Amino acid sequence: MSVSEATHSYSEFRGDQDGKKQPNIATSKSFLLFMFVAFVLGVILVVIGSNLGKSPTTVPAWALTSFIQQINGSVYTSANMSGSGYTQVFNAQYDYETPYIIVVCANYADVNLTFWFAWSFHLQMNMRGGGYSPAGWSYCDGCVILDMSNLTSVTLDMENMTVTADVGANMATIYQALQSVGWMAPITPVTNISIGGYTLGGGSHPMNRLLGLAVDSVQQFGALAADQTWLIANSTNSSGLWWALRGGGGGNFAIVVNVTFQAYPAVPTAIGGWITWPMSQSANVTSAYDTAAFGYTSGQNGSFWGFNLAWRSNATGMFITLSGGWFGPIAEGLAALAPFRAISGGDVNLVNGSYYDVMDYLFMFNNQTLRRVNFTTQSGFFTQNNGSSTVVSGGFNTDVMNALTQAQMNYSWNDFQIGVWIEPFGDGYAVNNVAPNETAFWARNSAGVFGLYLIWNTTYAPGGNQTAIAQANATNAANAIYQQLTPYLMSTNTTTPSTTLAFVSYPMNITSFGPAYYGGNFQQLQAMKEAYDPYNWIYFPQGVPLPS
Description:
14 helices
């Protein structure tokens, strides 16, 4: 892997002192004609007060042809979309949707032109980096897909120890760049997740407690604003947008094309991997987890703890798995893991060595376990239990087991795989040391991220429309488990009645998503939406809405 200076990184941002940047774009006669027509249509739409949630304008054949000719990358229409490799996303249940066109951008000029095209003809446009949006927001029926997966440049600034990555750059690419110079950063060891959507949603990873969330290390964003100007958003230029993009979700305020984040010297040693036990050991495992993750005593450094815990059920049985890493002195890590290794029945797969040895192992583990499937999810944030170190043992563990057992009684494991997990934050560690309103990511005072996933299989859905039946059963099962576990999750008092907090874009069927995702930051995010996208051109169903 080579780390090269991105040829387009800032050649298309030429700015004035307020941070606004004008795009470098082609000036061919056909392009200017297209842009003139697009401008006239766009003005008409603005005058009549339309927004992207309403009916699109019919696109003349000549306009589509002209647009395709100007794109440096590739454009896929109904004529050549099938089999292109760009019609599949990670959550396979959205494969039935058929976009109007998919534009695979080769550079930032393609991004600019695609936005003009969608804006001019009143077409909804969904943005895609790696296609890992759990709620399917990187794909849609009848819309324009702005695919930035080929924007993958990674640039290292050795003097300032920062990394600038295009939004299509995936975790493996960025990790290899970091490894080449002995750095680490708040990335997650999942190969094909791109930096764009991951960062904009907050960016949780195994080193949360040491480095904070990904957004806590972001120095600036490069973005195309809704008024078609290029912006560099940081703490001094377009600072309101910089605040909003750090946890305010993707596809809300501007089209982000690159992210610059702080890197750090890699920790010298680490331990990582996974241990899996039969569910009969869950009481012992959760008790040990609460002690290891939340019950640290003097002389121990809990910031090194980066193991999550997952309860899983599938056709072969019910299991509980510890996975992740310890990013600190090996002797101390071995002591922290000793209680887990003493629990009988565990299948132990751990390595110790350098930070890179462990990250390589975790990338391998996640590549084996993560695959393109039909799934539904829910999410939340664990309460701190009033300072108690009891978070997942006791009542929570019992209720998880009861919920999974009930689901097993109601549905065949041939139909579903179910998992519940925690990724730890905790008081006194990096994530919670940031105030809730310092970035757009609100849930700063929790014990950690709660997640629920349910993978479903259409093969075993009985009779009729198999996909619809399996999807409905999966949704019902996930909702039932989530409702049973809601008492353990944080709520926000910014609404009446209060709303259970959730991770951005993870619940599949949520109505009050604004307060749930953003808590007390929601109104400020609406203000930023009005400031940077007053006509709601950058739109998707769970996007931050304009103030009512």
